[in-house]
């Protein structure tokens, strides 16, 4: 079997397994899986910026929240329905990432982290400041009338799962196509050696800006979907925590691997869910697990697997 | 062979007799429980995160109320269990916890959350799962119509009612020209909007509204904005910077002339009013949802509640005088659990199929007289808005203690209905 065949077989099998899981899992875990799939879309976007292009952002909560509010505000104030609202969220995430990128990409490394963090914090405070329009720190409930997509009520478990799965599958396959395309190779080139890429005739600023905008599209779509599927839009999703989480998902699953973000989101979700049954200090356990990961498997689970076994893993 | 237990040396015969008697007694005491599966109540707890100070006391109050309910025969003759799940005071985790309590722990209903964003983030999922969700939040979001038929607030009066009922006394006793200092987000805006409206309706005037951004750690730049003409300074701050705010307020005025100061005890929940730096609060007034210090006219129910939860006459833990309770809010947990008992018994609740009947039974409640079930005082429940209305207290700091000087009427707290949840489908 060629590497290409192996890659497509693996990814399609993962999608099939996730789809079938809804019929096998108890309701609690099926709904969790829907949440994880949406969070994985967010992490896939982060992976495009960080894992493939080397842009270590601390501001992705801004793009996630842009998608969430880009969806939620038109529903609340203008009475929009689900499909245009979801598209608005997608566009809001991508557009804001583009605008932030225009400014933040003038910096690199630690400065880029600080500038993106600063933008995200400014975005969070803006949401609080414009309380009348955004609901401030309390947020708001997405009207149930708007949570209907192609006749399916997204407040029901099956429709929610199918929608989350559709977005997840589309995001995963698009990511796979992207990273295997010539443009994907150039993204990796930016991560590995920006100066050499420039010497070869590529414009690093343009490439990184495009990668960041695509990353923002993913984050925006995830934010919009999370708000739509679970019925709540709130400023807490714009806090630093939601910039750190996708980074942890990616680091855990394997930066620069297509399936890594999903695996990381899945493991991190259940690490919190299970350890919180036993201790109040569950975030300490999460932290300890990550320290262990950095020490013993710095490339994440799939990154380590690629290094040692499946060298063809994208 | 005999073993020495607690300084006595029982014979084998005595041990066997004792064990037999114990088993027999257990046999008499247990028949009710042995027949019935427990009623499982889920508690969405702020054990960690910004609400942890409240969560700790909410958990203690819930445990105390649980003991009282079980000692009195449980609910419909069934024992009651509470499953606590930490939501990290985070709305995303809050919704997941709702899911976990219902789908994994098979709880009959959920109660207990305080922070508004957690309530608003979790209520949609509770509605989808069709599980009663009884919040102890004091936010206006329930009565404001934002939530759903499964979400109710029967244990604590909301902010709108609190500030509206307070205004007439403030205007009559402290002054007519009010300056408000509040956090610049939704909680503070509720105070700003509803108290301003109540002041204007009462013939007073809000001369300045000073909004403090939520990230501030020092307040010195805001205090000079208080106009000279101010007769009453109304402050309500929450979060870790509360103590700094109050101390800086003291430093700002020093020993010089100062306006009358009226604050919400939220500023000092879980904080000792006699802490260093707070001396200037002597003679100022506070709203209290429930008087922290035991008052001279405390009812027998209030005294029993205080003892059951383990709070001393100063409002601190009986086991640690420095561990000050969140007394003004935590009674809501006690009262909500008793309302759950009353609602389930009224509905003839047998299992999760009767959840709708339970909601309808609570909606049908109106008068709630002061009793062991309603230790904070009498209340009136509005089934249409799913919101309860009760008395509020104004206390004055005298000798480092909060002494009650006024009790508001329930009528002063009631406002026109903004929603009728009973017209919504289940």
Describe this structure in words.
The complex is a heterodimer of chains A (314) and B (426). Chain A contains 14 helices and four strands. By secondary structure, chain A is mainly α. Chain A has one domain (3-239). In chain A, strand 2 (148-149) and strand 3 form a beta hairpin. The radius of gyration of chain A is 19 Å and the shape is globular. Chain B has two domains: 36-157 and 329-390, 3-Layer(aba) Sandwich (Rossmann fold), CATH 3.40.50; 160-288 and 393-407, Response regulator (Rossmann fold, 3-Layer(aba) Sandwich), CATH 3.40.50. Chain B has helices at 12-29, 31-35, 52-71, 91-104, 116-129, 159-173, 186-201, 242-253, 300-309, 327-347, 355-363; strands spanning 39-45, 80-86, 109-111, 133-134, 151-152, 177-183, 205-212, 232-235, 260-264, 285-288, 316-317, 320-324, 367-368, 379-382, 387-390, 393-398, 401-407. In chain B, helix 6 crosses helix 7 and helix 10 (327-347) packs across helix 11. Chain B starts with 11 loop residues before the first helix and ends in a 19-residue tail after the last strand. In chain B, the strands form four sheets. A seven-stranded mixed beta sheet of chain B has the order 7-6-8-9-10-16-17, covered by helices on one side. In chain B, strands 2-1-3-4-5 form a five-stranded parallel beta sheet, with helices on both faces. In chain B, strands 13-14-15 form a three-stranded antiparallel beta sheet, with no helix packed on it. Chain A binds chain B through residues 26-28, 31-32, 35, 125, 128-129, 131, 135-142, 155-156, 230-232, 234-237, 273, 276, 280, 283, and chain B through 47-48, 85-86, 90-92, 95-96, 99-100, 103-104, 116-117, 120-121, 123-125, 127-128, 139, 141, 146-147, 184-187, 189, 213-215.
Précis, in short:
The complex is a heterodimer of chains A (about 325) and B (about 425). Chain A is mainly alpha-helical. Chain A has helices spanning about 5-25, 25-50, 60-80, 80-105, 110-130, 130-135, 155-180, 180-190, 195-200, 205-230, 240-255, 260-275, 280-295, 300-310, and strands at about 140, 150, 150-155, 230-235.
């Amino acid at each position: 079997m060629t590497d290409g065949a192996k890659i497509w077989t693996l990814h399609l099998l993962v999608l099939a397994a996730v789809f079938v899981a809804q019929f096998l899992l108890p309701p609690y875990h099926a709904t969790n899986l829907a949440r994880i799939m949406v969070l994985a879309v967010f992490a896939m976007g982060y992976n495009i910026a960080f894992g493939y292009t080397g842009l270590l952002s601390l501001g992705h909560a801004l793009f996630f929240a842009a998608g969430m509010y880009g969806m939620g505000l038109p529903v609340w104030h203008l009475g929009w329905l689900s499909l245009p609202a979801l598209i608005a969220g997608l566009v809001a995430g991508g557009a804001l990432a583009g605008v932030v990128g225009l400014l933040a990409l003038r910096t690199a490394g630690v400065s880029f982290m600080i500038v993106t963090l600063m933008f995200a914090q400014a975005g969070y405070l803006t949401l609080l400041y414009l309380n009348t329009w955004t609901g401030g720190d309390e947020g708001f409930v997405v009207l149930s009338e708007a949570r209907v997509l192609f006749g399916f009520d997204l407040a029901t478990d099956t429709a929610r799962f199918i929608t989350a799965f559709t977005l997840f599958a589309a995001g995963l396959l698009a990511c796979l196509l992207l990273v295997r395309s010539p443009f994907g190779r150039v993204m990796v080139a930016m991560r590995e050696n920006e100066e050499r890429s420039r010497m070869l005739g590529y414009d690093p600023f343009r490439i990184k800006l495009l990668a960041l905008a695509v990353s923002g599209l993913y984050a925006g779509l995830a934010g919009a979907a999370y708000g739509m599927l679970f019925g709540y839009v709130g400023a807490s999703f714009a806090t630093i925590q939601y910039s750190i989480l996708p980074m942890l998902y990616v680091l855990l699953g394997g930066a620069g691997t297509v399936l890594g973000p999903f695996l990381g989101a899945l493991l991190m979700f259940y690490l919190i869910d299970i350890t919180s049954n036993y201790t109040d200090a569950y975030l300490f356990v999460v932290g300890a697990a990550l320290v262990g990961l950095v020490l013993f498997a710095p490339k994440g689970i799939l990154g380590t697997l690629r290094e040692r076994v499946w060298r063809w893993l994208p | 062979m005999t073993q020495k237990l607690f300084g006595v040396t029982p014979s084998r015969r005595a041990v066997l007799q004792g064990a037999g008697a114990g088993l027999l007694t257990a046999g008499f005491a247990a028949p009710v429980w042995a027949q019935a599966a427990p009623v499982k109540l889920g508690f969405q707890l702020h054990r960690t995160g910004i609400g942890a100070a409240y969560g700790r006391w909410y958990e203690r109050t819930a445990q105390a109320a649980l003991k009282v309910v079980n000692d009195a025969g449980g609910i419909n003759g069934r024992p009651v269990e509470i499953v606590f799940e930490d939501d990290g005071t985070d709305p995303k985790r809050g919704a997941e916890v709702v899911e976990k309590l219902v789908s994994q722990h098979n709880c009959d209903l959920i109660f207990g959350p305080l922070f508004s964003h957690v309530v608003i983030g979790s209520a949609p999922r509770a509605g989808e799962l069709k599980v009663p969700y009884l919040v102890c939040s004091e936010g206006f979001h329930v009565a404001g119509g934002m939530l759903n038929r499964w979400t109710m607030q029967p244990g604590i009066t909301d902010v709108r009612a609190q500030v509206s009922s307070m205004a007439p006394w403030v205007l009559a006793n402290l002054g007519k020209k009010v300056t408000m200092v509040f956090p610049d987000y939704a909680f503070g805006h509720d105070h700003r909007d509803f108290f301003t409206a109540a002041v204007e309706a009462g013939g007073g005037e809000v001369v300045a509204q000073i909004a403090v951004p939520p990230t501030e750690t020092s307040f010195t730049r805001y205090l000079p904005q208080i106009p000279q003409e101010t007769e009453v300074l109304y402050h309500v701050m929450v979060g870790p910077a509360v103590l700094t705010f109050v101390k800086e307020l003291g430093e700002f005025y020093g020993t010089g002339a100062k306006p009358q100061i009226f604050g919400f005890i939220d500023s000092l929940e879980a904080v000792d009013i006699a802490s260093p730096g707070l001396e200037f609060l002597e003679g100022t007034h506070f709203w209290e949802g429930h008087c922290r210090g035991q008052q001279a006219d405390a009812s027998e129910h209030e005294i029993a509640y205080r003892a059951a939860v383990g709070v001393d006459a100063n409002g601190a833990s009986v086991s640690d005088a420095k561990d000050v309770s969140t007394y003004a809010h935590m009674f809501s947990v006690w009262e909500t659990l008793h309302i759950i008992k009353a609602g389930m018994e009224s509905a003839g609740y047998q299992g999760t199929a009767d959840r709708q009947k339970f909601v309808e039974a609570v909606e049908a409640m109106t008068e709630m007289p002061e009793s062991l079930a309603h230790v904070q005082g009498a209340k009136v429940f509005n089934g249409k808005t799913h919101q309860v209305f009760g008395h509020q207290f104004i206390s004055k700091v005298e000798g480092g203690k909060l002494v009650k000087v006024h009790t508001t009427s329930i009528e002063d707290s009631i406002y026109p209905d903004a929603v009728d949840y009973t017209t919504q489908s289940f």
